[in-house]
Every structure is written in C-alpha cells, then in structure tokens.
C-alpha cells in the first residue's frame, strides 16, 4: 500500500488504470506509458497494418480493417472491387467505435452503405472490420478466449503468456449472419458484460461448464475430438509475439518521452488481456488487446429484485489469482538480491569448502561425519552454482528438484534464508520471448526504424520529430543526392506530416509522429531499392542508415579523443 504521506520509495507501484505518475524515480510500475493509447482500436489496427504491409502472410491473424471516417471511401472501393472479382463473396462487417469497450456501440452490417454515417461517425471515430463468419462453436455457441500476457520488459523484450485463460460464451446458439439475425448481440458478441444480461447466462462453479469457462477445459474438449492442441498453442504464441512486435516501436517512443534514458526513473511491466477468436479451422484471430483487463474474481448475483451481492467466481479465481501471483514472482525485487547472493557464493565456493573442512577438523569431527558434511555442502554449492546460472524461474524450479533428488537436503532453503519461492505452485506464466526470439526477430524492422526516429528526436521528452531533426536524419544517413535534393526532403516532410496531423490523433505537439516517419522511411526505401519486395527495401535502407550512423559515431569518437 502507498499510504498518503509516505516518503520512502516502493519496490513495486501497482497503478489502477494507466501509467500516470511522473514522480517515480525507482522501482517498477505495472503500466507502460502510452500502452492505453497503443491498444485503442484505431492505433492497434494501424500498427498491425504497418506490419501487414511488410509481412502480409505473417500478420494474417488480424481481420482486414479500415479506419473511419478517413478510410470510408477506400472501404467502399475495396469492397466493391472484391465483390466484382468474386460475386459469390457475401461479406459481413463489424463496426467498432474507437476507445469503446464491453461491446459498447458495436454493430454488424452487410454493406458499406449501412454504416451509420449521420452524426456519430464524425464525432466518434471507429474501425470497420471483416466479420469472422465461421467461428469455432462449442455446444453450438460462439465463444472467445481471454489470455493474459505479461510484458515484463520492453528493452530487452521479454514476454510471458499465462498457460490458462478464460473462454467467454455467447448465450444464443450461433447462426451465420443474415439480415434477420445481425442485431442479435447474444448470438454474435461474446462480451461477458452483454451476455450477463441474457436470461440464458449460466454462472457455474465448474470450470468446464457455464457461460465462462477456463480455456484449458476447451482445449481438453478439442483434444478429445482429435484436434491438434499443440499446434493451436504454438499459433497463439506466435500471434501474441507478433502483436507485441507491432506495438513495441511506438511504445518505445512513449517510454523515452516519459522515462528518458540516463535519468532516474522506474522500469515498467504490464499484464495485457488478449481477446482471441478461434475460427472453425482452429486458426486463432486477434480481436483486440486490453491494457487494463479486469482482474475481478467475483460476480454480482441478484438475490431478490434490485438486491445484488458479490459472490466468488471460481473460474475467474483459478485463472486470475495465478496471473497476479506469478507476475509478482517474476518482477520480485528480492529475486535479484537472492541471485546476487548466489553469484557471490559461486565466486567464493572454493574458499568456503576449505573453511568448512578446517572447521570440521578443528571441532574434531570423526572422519565419516566430516566426509558427510563436506559432501552435502559440495552438493549444496553445486545447486547454487546451477541456480545462479538459471535464466528463468522455470529453470530454477527444475534445479531445485534435481538438488532434492541428489540429496542436497532442502535445496539450500532451510532456516532463515528460506526462499520466497518455496511452497509456491509452479509458474503459470510461460516465457515466450526471448525464448523464441530467433524465430521472430526478423519481424522487428519497425523497431529499428523507431530507434532511428528516437535518435533524431533531439529534445528529451518529445514524441514528434521537427523539420530540422528530419533534415539531420537525411544528412547523417547520406540519403540526399542529385536525384533527391534537400528541397524534396522538405516537401516529403511537410506532405506526410500534414496528412498525419490532419487525422487529428494528437494535437498536443507539432511535428512528425512515428507512423508518419515510418511512412516517409518506406517511401525513401521504395525509391532507393526499386525492384525488391517492401520488407527487403526497408531492411536494406535500415542497414544503410545504421552503417552511416555507426561510421559517424566512430568519427566523432576519434575527434573527441583528439
Ligand atoms: P469491445 O472492446 O467493445 O469488447 P471487441 O473488439 O472485443 O470490442 O468486440 C466485441 C465482440 O465482438 C468480441 O468479443 C467478439 O465476440 C465480437 N467480434 C469483434 N470483432 C469480430 C470480428 N472481426 N469477427 C467476429 N466477431 C467479432
């Protein structure tokens, strides 16, 4: 708790909604600056779209989306073109207001002309998205999955996924959308907050039944039907890592603005709620990411008309308590201290062994006893050695188990130095990054573009690049030549910046935002490396810029020394 008037800093700050406190100079905060903005429907769709432009196949887990109002004409044109090329295509679309939650303001349409343009669209930006018509059904009902993901660190990137999640069910049997059933929210929308008002909603104490179940119970059902559950998990892990890779570039811009490098500040971590829909072929599709997922473990029950009582919800409790407990275990500041002690013991293990032998001799222990103590101690030291080299808590648990089996007694936890991990269940959070980094690192191109952007931002605390910063970027990276004059550079800057700022995203600062810079960067890459596919053009330009900047840094270093 942080009682009013407390002066001492805390190890962990647990903010309710978003990162909001600029007076924290140490410790860890459970929110990243800018995360709430990043996962809004429009921003998320934009970030994913940038990745879809670069890697269309890798990012086909997010439904095709258009941003309203500005892309309304594009939406109309593209749908018409697709219908012309495939007359049998009878799509449905879902319109979701930006920043909405709990199904608020969502509706389904069959044709672009059905969008409610009058009044609301100008005042309320939205995303219109292809509706997934063939979801996987269980008990004839549509359901979605809420998975908890811990973003433990942004730099270096560290991601954990909870091994279990929640499945939230609709309360009317599903039918593919028709003009007649489009409005039936209990059939099409899986939101708990909506379905709870249906007479068919079933509160259950059993995690395998009812309108809210554990995801593991669904996996059991699928597995008994012969589904490849391992493949499903690996597709979900891939979806989560790719989505976070899409979010990290802009998050880094927010981070350096709120917590500038080199100044005292906290580090951040955050639990995110991923909403995922399974298609009937078991392909997971991302619906949205929640920056502030509900951690309630109770639900309201109406005892008599108008009289409500909070009662425990075993399904929520089973999943959410484990997520919070293990998040705290992973970010535990004590863990670092314990690890330092282990490292110290490793360092001094030889001298320790000698000292203990000397004591045994001094105290006149019989040879047998002496040997037994030395053996036990050496086993214990071996255990510490192994524990000290463990990268994850999962590995540490395994090392402890081995030590116990080898006869190192309590695994080094007896007495006052009992580990806080002792007696806790195994971790429900599974590390997926950097564990699978090798498989996904090639996708992190925009991250490298963001690093260039941040380098040229100049003034600390800003999120937008001024015209001088952009010119310096072009000059330092040697991108201007006889075909691309500095006058053209200025025109490019003005054109792109004006367009992005007219979309009315953030009027607080003037200048070029990261997405505008990314667009300009893609333009430059296309100009310079004409015949390659876009991701190769962009990768080549990044290499080119990084090479020139490294050369420049070296030159400056030499000059500085001189
Ligand atoms: P909110 O933040 O308001 O909950 P969501 O994007 O999660 O908005 O959408 C609400 C619900 O609508 C989802 O839980 C899901 O059941 C349904 N839904 C959303 N997008 C799609 C889609 N593209 N295809 C099918 N169903 C969808």
Reconstruct the topology from this structure.
Layout: E1 12-13, E2 28-29, H1 35-38, H2 41-54, E3 65-68, H3 72-85, E4 93-97, E5 107-109, H4 120-123, E6 126-130, E7 137-138, E8 141-153, E9 158-162, E10 166-169, H5 185-188, H6 192-195, E11 212-214, H7 215-224, H8 229-258, E12 267-268, E13 270-278, E14 284-290, E15 298-304, E16 307-312, H9 314-331, H10 333-347, H11 349-362, H12 367-388, H13 393-406, E17 429-433, H14 437-440, H15 445-457, H16 467-476, H17 486-502, H18 514-528, H19 534-561
Parallel strand pairs: 1-2, 2-12
Antiparallel strand pairs: 3-6, 4-5, 4-6, 7-8, 8-9, 8-10, 8-13, 9-17, 10-11, 13-14, 15-16
Helix pairs in contact: 8-15, 10-12, 11-12, 12-13, 15-16, 15-18, 15-19, 16-17, 17-18, 18-19
The structure holds adenosine-5'-diphosphate.
Adenosine-5'-diphosphate binds near residues 94, 131 and 144.
């Amino acid at each position: 708790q942080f009682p009013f008037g407390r002066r001492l800093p805390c190890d962990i700050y647990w903010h309710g909604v978003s990162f909001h406190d600029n007076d924290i100079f140490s410790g860890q905060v459970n929110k990243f600056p800018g995360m709430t903005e990043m996962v809004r429907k429009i921003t998320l769709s934009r970030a994913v779209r940038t990745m879809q432009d670069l890697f269309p196949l890798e990012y086909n887990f997010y439904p095709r989306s258009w941003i309203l109002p500005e892309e309304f004409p594009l939406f109309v044109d593209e749908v018409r073109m697709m219908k012309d090329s495939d007359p049998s295509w009878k799509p449905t679309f879902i319109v979701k207001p930006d920043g909405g939650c709990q199904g608020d303001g969502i509706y389904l349409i069959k044709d672009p002309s059905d969008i409610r343009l009058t009044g609301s669209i100008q005042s309320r930006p939205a995303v219109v998205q292809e509706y997934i018509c063939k979801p996987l059904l269980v008990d004839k009902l549509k359901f979605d999955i809420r998975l908890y993901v811990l973003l433990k660190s942004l730099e270096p990137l560290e991601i954990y996924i909870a091994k279990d999640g929640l499945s939230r069910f609709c309360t009317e049997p599903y039918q593919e959308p028709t003009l007649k059933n489009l409005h039936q929210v209990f059939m099409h929308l899986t939101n708990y907050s909506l379905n709870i008002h249906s007479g068919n909603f079933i509160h259950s104490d059993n995690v395998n039944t009812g309108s809210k179940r554990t995801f593991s119970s669904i996996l059991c059902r699928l597995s008994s039907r012969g589904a490849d559950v391992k493949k499903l998990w690996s597709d979900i892990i891939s979806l989560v890592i790719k989505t976070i890779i899409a979010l990290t570039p802009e998050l880094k811009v927010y981070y350096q603005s709120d917590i500038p490098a080199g100044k005292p500040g906290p580090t951040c971590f955050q639990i995110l709620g991923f909403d995922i829909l399974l298609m009937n072929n078991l392909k997971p599709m991302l619906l949205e990411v929640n920056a502030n997922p509900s951690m309630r473990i109770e639900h309201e029950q109406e005892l008599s008309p108008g009289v409500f009582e909070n009662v425990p919800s075993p399904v929520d409790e089973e999943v959410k308590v484990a997520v919070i407990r293990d998040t705290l275990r992973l970010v535990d500041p004590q863990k670092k201290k314990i690890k330092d002690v282990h490292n110290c013991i490793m360092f001094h293990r030889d001298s320790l062994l000698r000292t203990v032998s000397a004591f045994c001799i001094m105290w006149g222990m019989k040879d047998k006893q002496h040997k037994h103590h030395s053996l036990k101690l050496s086993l214990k030291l071996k255990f510490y050695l192994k524990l000290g080299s463990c990268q994850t808590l999962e590995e540490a648990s395994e090392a402890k188990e081995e030590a116990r089996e080898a006869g190192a007694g309590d695994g080094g936890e007896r007495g006052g130095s009992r580990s806080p991990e002792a007696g806790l269940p195994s971790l429900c959070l599974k590390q997926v990054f950097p564990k699978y980094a090798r498989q996904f690192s090639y996708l992190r191109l925009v991250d490298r573009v963001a690093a260039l952007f941040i380098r040229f931002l100049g003034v600390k605390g800003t999120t937008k690049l001024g015209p001088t910063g952009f010119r310096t970027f072009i000059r330092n990276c040697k991108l201007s030549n006889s075909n691309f004059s500095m006058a053209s550079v200025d025109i490019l800057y003005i054109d792109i910046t004006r367009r992005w700022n007219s979309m009315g995203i953030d009027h607080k600062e003037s200048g070029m935002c990261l997405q505008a810079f990314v667009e300009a960067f893609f333009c430059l890459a296309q100009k310079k490396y004409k015949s390659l596919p876009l991701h190769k053009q962009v990768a080549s330009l990044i290499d080119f810029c990084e090479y020139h900047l490294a050369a420049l840094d070296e030159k400056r270093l030499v000059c500085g020394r001189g």
